[in-house]
Amino acid sequence: MTYNSLQFFPFFAIFLILYLLMPRVKLRQIVILIGNIVFYMLAAGKGTLFVLAATSLVVYAAARAIDHIYSGYEREKEGLTPKEGAALFAGYKKRAKKYLLAAFFLILGFLFYAKIGKLFGFKETDTAMGLFSGGTILVPLGLSYYTFSSVGYLLDLYWKKAKCERDYFRLIVCMTYFPHIVQGPIGRYDKLLKQFAALPGFCYERVCAGLIRMLWGFIKKMVIADRLALFTRAVFASPGEFAGFEIFLAVSLCAVELYADFSGCMDIVIGAAETMGITLDENFKRPFFSKSAAEFWRRWHITLGAWFKDYVYMPVAMSPRFMKTCVNFRKKHGNRAGQIFSSAIPLAIVWLLTGLWHGTGADYVVWGIYWGAVIILGTVLTPEFKKLTTKLAINTESFGYQFFQMARIYFLFVIGRMFTVTGSLEGFGKLVTGLFKEHRLWTIFDGSLYEHGLDYKNFCVAVIGIAAIWISDMLGEHINIREALSKQPLVLRWFVYYSGMVILLIFGMYGEAFDASNFVYGGF
Description:
This protein is mainly α.
């Protein structure tokens, strides 16, 4: 079962009704935990649920151990001077670090095991017994996401930025929470735990708002992304058979497909959580309106970028050893070179790890290096770009120049997507070669373009869907669309809602002849 499968609709309907009928917070927590277990077993199997449960025990035990150690510090620090308190804390922190590293060894070790297994081409299995067949790996659903959330939670405890959750029941409810277990957002457990401790009762406006967001997410995924996938997958499966225009169209559409797929999933899960009174972190903020590579990644997969910033970039950039190296580099090579060095090294590490997080193949490593280089060069060359625009008398506030910036970022994203979309660097080479072969523009007019998984009528539906996303995002830059819609007359509101449901029912890609596509980021 996935969020867009037909089984999910009755599952969520039954779950939500039971949840909203519960009169007390504890009963709502129990319903959520049961829903989490049922969803996970239907989506992944019993074997992987066991791994997730074991991980939750490791996280809970390590968190309690760290909390117990720091409680001793709190008792002993009374009456000490700040200097004495800092020295005392250093000793306690050193003791807590042992439990932190032990937990990391187990939690991150399993993630590395899964990544390395995929690198060597091992087949995935969803049962413990399947491991004995040889050449297989057990990869729990949402492994990367709950691993990163768990690591962040333990680090926040270690740095005394969060409080320890002493109720294991509430922690397991949070860790297994089905709206964010598959592909995020990468939640901060300390924020979520506070919400799970005070789950609100039924609220008509909140439930409606959440369901409306879910509806828009389903339309993005099932009407637009899955429809585009029929064409793009046909091209990427055998790029050598296609010419320049067809490949250009496929790589251009695959960026929109990925956006509709991933942001559609975020709308579904954030909307589902909203119906329960849980606020998950936003993961998208209309990224294709970005004007620089750095801004794009502040708008795309926001929680992943924030995680790497908080737990990789800042610890590297602020480490005493690295800061000392930066000071020496600045003295030797000048201030500007020192500033570039101090930001480029942490960025390079972050993007190498980001590439490896997405996949261990050479294609994702190159993808990470590509985006790291683009962002570093964009940062380094900013003064030169400003001088150039001034010299050429370009009005950087004009619509034309801003549109150029957005188009530039879009095609930079498309190029990056080309590295990974075929599954190998060899495939990337075929795509690049194919772009410069005969263009075959006549395929638009002779109908042969519509023989590769997507006929003319479905192309038209996809184009209308893309236009709808663009209009929605453009309006979203200035207003809250759901809030604005809620202020409209009742008849107009429900006309929009029913229209959305009819569009999903008529144009959604599902049924016996269609194998529902898993969400792209669910594989990470």
